[in-house]
Structures are given as structure tokens and as C-alpha cells.
Amino acid sequence: MKQLKNLIMKAIVYSNFGNTDVLQTAEQTKPLIEPNEVLVKIKAFSINPMDWKIRKGEMKLMSGSKFPKHTGADFAGIIEAIGSSVSNFKIGDEVFGVVKNIMKEGASSEYTAVPSSLVWKKPKNISFAQAASIPIAGTAAVTAIAKMGKINSKTSILVNGATGGFGMFLLQLLKQYGANVTAVTSTKSIEYAKKWGANTVIDYTKENILLQRTAYDIIIDLSGRLGYKNAKKIMKPKSIFLNPTPQPIEIPFSILKNFFTSKKHIVVLSSPGTSHTTILLDAVNNGLDIEISKVFPFAQYKEAYQYAEKGGYIGKTTIEIN
Ligand SMILES: NC(=O)c1ccc[n+]([C@@H]2O[C@H](COP(=O)([O-])OP(=O)(O)OC[C@H]3O[C@@H](n4cnc5c(N)ncnc54)[C@H](OP(=O)(O)O)[C@@H]3O)[C@@H](O)[C@H]2O)c1
Question: What is the Cα–Cα distance from 242 to 141, expressed in whole angstroms?
Fold first, then answer.
């Protein structure tokens, strides 16, 4: 009986698309590992907007409609078992990582089995909740910077929606390039945007950025509310609009559209591999700030998702499992 109990774990799952009401806990069998995988006992996982977009059926083309589904893509925890071909980790290592298929799998359970290539040692100076916040939002920020091309102190960059998970990493990484960054936030987040390196901050509750007389070399829309069509009004003749919230149809269309305009529309998709994560780990070692707005206990998972979906938080929201 005791042995059987050890094979069972609790998980957050859903069996229909919908709002937070569809989320429920379930008992599931602990995953088995392949030779190249590690079994991680999860201590924390982070909430990303992608979680509720998938849960609401807005990304069906990529997520598919197979149920039950887990939620939560990035996690941190302790290695409990290692596959026969894994040599770079040992049982007991504190790690953070991301599930293999972020559209179809989730880390919302007590254990997850993932390839060792998607797990990294947790820096000692950050908590499990902070480490779990890195893979999706952090690597999206690194990818966005790579798509910006050459940037220097003369490059003007508008970050619209600058103090959520993605913006927190982006502002701090951009600071290293000395770019001229304008952050758009609500009133309560102004001090954070400044602290994270913005040269100018615009409060969107008081000013309409489309009515300014400034034009930018690069605009990234993290709020998903500006859109390329509007952004073009405040883009320089040769400039870039970065879109991390594309509709699936926009992905091939953006390539086509760019042949006919010098105001380029470029899609950003995070890629949580080792090269991007190494950049983030270096930044963490150099004091990158990972702000966690709130850590919820596992039992309050519905409240956690409601809190995150309502918005208005700074940095990330995470769930802890004891
Ligand atoms: N493509 C990818 O691989 C990828 C990866 C990660 C994230 N994303 C996407 O990128 C977006 C941002 O992610 P996130 O994790 O940073 O989300 P988030 O934490 O929810 O942040 C969204 C930000 O938008 C701001 N905002 C809300 N209304 C606004 C408005 N009218 N004007 C300007 N800013 C406004 C919010 O500020 P206040 O709280 O101050 O209102 C908040 O700072 C999401 O849509 C997410 O799905 C994409």
C-alpha cells in the first residue's frame, strides 16, 4: 500500500476549455523517465499568460484538443531520479527547467519527467519561485533582443507593457546595451520600470502613446493591445515592430508583408534552450532582479490563476508545492 502511494502524485488538470472553473486537482501516476530524462520533484511553477490562452482554447491550433491537459510550462525543483544516459546531474540537485512541449504539456504537478537538456542548475542566490520564472519569460526577452538586430545608445525602443514577467527581463537585459528605452506601464509600476533601466516612462492610464510626437526604431508590444497597425503611426520609416502575441495566421503573413514595407513586423517566440538560458544565468549572477508579485500555495491554485489573469501585478506570479 505504501509503495502504491509513492507512485501517485497530485496534479492540476482540466478536461474542457474554459475559465478557471475548469481547473481541478487529480491524482495521477508519477511519470516514468526515459534514459535521457530526469525526474524533478517540483517545488514551484510559474504562471504565464500562455497558460490561460491555451486553457481558454485560444491556441487550439497549436495545443490540440486532447484532454486532460496540465498547465504551467516552467518549473523549479529537486532531481529525484536520473536516466541512464544523463551525466551532468545527480539526485538532489536543485534545478529549474521547462516542459518538452509547452503547448501540450504542463508542470502543474508534484513531479515532471523532462529531458536533461531542458533543465539547468538553480543559482543559489534565487528562490525556487524566482528560478521557475526564468525559462518562458526570460528566454522570450533574450529572443526579442536577438530579433532587434544591432542596438546601441542611439536606438530608441518602446516597450509597451513593460513591468510584467516578460518586460521585467527585457528592460534589465536591454540596459546592458545602453539603448534609449521608453517603458509604458500603469501608475503603480513606474518606479519598477525606472529601477529596471527605462530612460523614460509613460503612464498609459494618463497618456496615449499614439498621440505623442516621438517615433521609435523598435516597438515591442507586450500588452497585446497596441497592434502593428496602430504602432506604425509611431514607427520611424525604417523600423521594427516585435509581436510576441501573434495569431497563428500572422506568423507566415508577417514574412510576406515584410517584402513590401520598411516597417517590419517580426514575430517573437521564446526558445528556452541552453544558449538563451546561459545569458539569463549570467545576468542572474550579476544581480538581475526577479520580482515575484505573489507566491500562492498549491491548494490556492484557482486564486493564483484568477490573480494572474486579472493583471495589474508586477513581475511574475508563481505557485509553490510543498
Ligand atoms: N511569444 C512568446 O514566446 C511569449 C513568451 C512569453 C510571453 N509572451 C506574451 O507576451 C505578453 C507579455 O507577457 P508577460 O508575461 O509579461 O505578461 P504580463 O505579466 O501579463 O504583462 C503584461 C503587461 O502589459 C501591461 N498592460 C496592460 N494593459 C496595458 C495597456 N493598455 N497599455 C500598455 N501596457 C499595458 C501590464 O501593465 P500593468 O500591470 O501596469 O497594467 C503588464 O505589465 C503576453 O501576451 C504573453 O502571452 C509571449
Answer: 11
Within 5-127, strands assigned E span: 8-14, 24-29, 37-47, 69-70, 74-82, 94-98, 111-115, 119-121
Compute, in angstroms, the gap from residue 223 CA to the centroid of ligand 1. Answer: 4
CB neighbours of residue 274 within 10 Å = 11
Please answer whether residues 118 and 150 qualify as being in contact, where contact means their C-beta atoms are separated by less than 8 angstroms: no
What CATH number is attached to the domain comprising 50? 3.90.180.10
224 and 128 in a common domain:
no
Q: Residue type at 180?
A: N
Distance 311 CA to ligand 1 centre (A): 9
Q: Could you report the per-residue pLDDT of 5-59, keeping only the tens digit for each?
A: 579 999 999 999 999 999 999 999 999 999 999 999 999 999 999 999 999 999 9
Contact 161 CB / ligand 1 (< 6 Å): yes
The torsion defined by the Cα of 38, 126, 168 and 143, in degrees rounded to 10, comes to: -40
**Ligand 1 centroid distance, CA of 195 (Å):** 18
Does residue 184 have its Cβ closer than 6 Å to ligand 1?
yes
Give me the number of domains the chain comprises. 2
